[in-house]
Amino acid sequence: MNWKNAGENPFIGWFRMLITEACLSLVGVRFIFQRQFLWFESRRRLVYLFCSPWAISRRFLDDRGELEAQGYGETPLVTLEAVARRLELSTGDRILELGCGTGRNCVWLAANYGCHIDGVEQIPTLVRISQRLLKGSSLTDKVTLSCMDMFELDMSSYRLVYVDCTAMSEACIRQVAMLCAGLPNEARVVTVNASLSELMPERFQLERVFPGLFIWGWSDMRIQRVGMPEDYLDSPQVDSQSDHFNGNCGSFAAADTEAGDSALATGAAQGMNQ
Ligand SMILES: C[S@@+](CC[C@H](N)C(=O)[O-])C[C@H]1O[C@@H](n2cnc3c(N)ncnc32)[C@H](O)[C@@H]1O
Questions:
Q1: How far does residue 13's CA lie from ligand 1's centre (Å)?
Q2: Which of 75, 88, 201, 249 could form a disulfide with 211 if both were Cys (CB 3.0 to 4.6 A apart)?
Q3: pLDDT tens profile 12-43
Q4: Which class for 229: exposed (0-12), middle (13-18), buried (19 or more C-beta within 10 A)?
């Protein structure tokens, strides 16, 4: 479920969002207590108090004439932590975040897991602010934030990619699939609200799927492996329960068991939950 398909009464939607945000803040608070991240995050919050990244993104898209485009959204720390844990990140890893927004995910991952992160973002203001916030921090040798169009990237040196596709159009998600198809075999791509294995079954293999909590509700998080399908014969692992809530994310499991991912249904039936 996300803002694209919520289709509910606006008042109920607003109320649900308020409760979700309160829950997210409560659960996420334990993930902020890392000195370098706290330093970055407190100043980031202060800066964006005066002009939110949502507003900056809106202005950027309006200027480009993309009046209908949904531009911005953030991955809550509780959800990012669930991703990092499943990827078993360590100091030697190098991650690419496509569309890194304000760079918060990059800083959090580098501060907590010691890995190297390259974030690319198309909105110059967001990148400029993040670079200033990072200046002087000991994380500068681990986090690189660049202002560029993700579709101009050379992907050949990456093994781990994170991309939140929630705000993207179908056409844009297809472009992301094409882009990530250029990753070397065995690389892993984590997507939010996009199934690369359905779009390009000949190139991506679904490895794991789990529910991630966002401000708008539950979204599907997919870990997909790059390579020929016959290279990875195991069924995907399906975690139909969230780590932090036992609340209703039941729609999640049913939402995307489309033809291409029928293995999901099998996995769920076999009780492959974590
Ligand atoms: C939904 S936000 C996600 C922000 C961040 N990754 C997170 O999860 O908190 C998507 C971001 O991708 C950026 N983006 C969209 N298309 C892009 C492109 N072609 N090149 C670079 N960044 C892009 C948007 O500007 C936006 O900041």
A1: 24
A2: 249
A3: 666 776 777 777 777 777 788 888 999 999 99
A4: middle
User: What percent of the chain is modeled with pLDDT above 90?
Assistant: 61
Which residues does a 6 A CB cutoff place in the pocket of ligand 1?
A: 57, 71-75, 97, 99-101, 105, 120-123, 149-151, 164, 166-167
Question: Distance (Å, rounded) from C-alpha 91 to C-alpha 21?
Answer: 31
The more confident residue out of 167 and 7 is 167
Of 18-27, 184-193, 245-254, where does mean pLDDT reach its minimum? Answer: 245-254
- Hey, which of 123, 153, 215 would you mutate to test ligand 1's pocket, going by the most ligand atoms within 8 Å of its Cβ? 123
Q: What is the 3-state secondary structure (H, E, C) of 194-239?
A: CCHHHHCCCCEEEEEEEEEEECCEEEEEEEEEECCHHHCCCCCEEC
3-state secondary structure of 39: helix
- The answer on pLDDT for 121 being more than 90 is yes
What are the residue ranges spanned by the domains of the chain? 10-264
Task: Give the residue, by CA position, lying nearest to ligand 1 atom 9.
Answer: 74
Q: Which fold has domain 10-264?
A: Rossmann fold (3.40.50)
Find all residues with CB under 8 Å of 28, minimum gap 6, and list them: 76, 77, 78
Atom of ligand 1 nearest to the CA of 80: 8
